[in-house]
Amino acid sequence: MNIPNVTHYIHAYKVAPWRIQRQWIGSALLAVVTLAMVAALYLIVTSHAAIAGREIQDLTYSITLSQQVSGDLQTQLASLTSASAMESRALELGFRPMESDEVEYLVVPGYSEPDPFILSASQGLQLSALTIAPQYNQSLLDWMDEKISSSQGMQ
Hints:
Blueprint: H1 2-15, H2 18-80, H3 83-92, H4 134-137, H5 140-154
């Protein structure tokens, strides 16, 4: 019963060869569609990477431009607040240098001038190995040796 069934299929393919051609064309189209989808995916990923790279370049450029503008403004501020510029503007506004006989000091009762805080090595703030606690002078090997010898002494 199997043999007539097989011969029937063989006869059907011999009578209609377009079926085999149709399968080959379908397989080829499937491969082309798959390749097109992979290519489209590659193009999408590449375009997103290119867009991100361009945005990074634009942001880097704007950072550089902002730093240049900030530097220019700092230079302008320095020139406007220099001693010679401030003196010339003060003279233009009608100010004049002060004379020594025009100085007035105001005495505030109960105010005493604070002692200046001088950071130097002469104040005794230096740390030496003698002033540091012994547990902080001990090396790891010394500590391990101490622990091992104390554990052996207990036995």
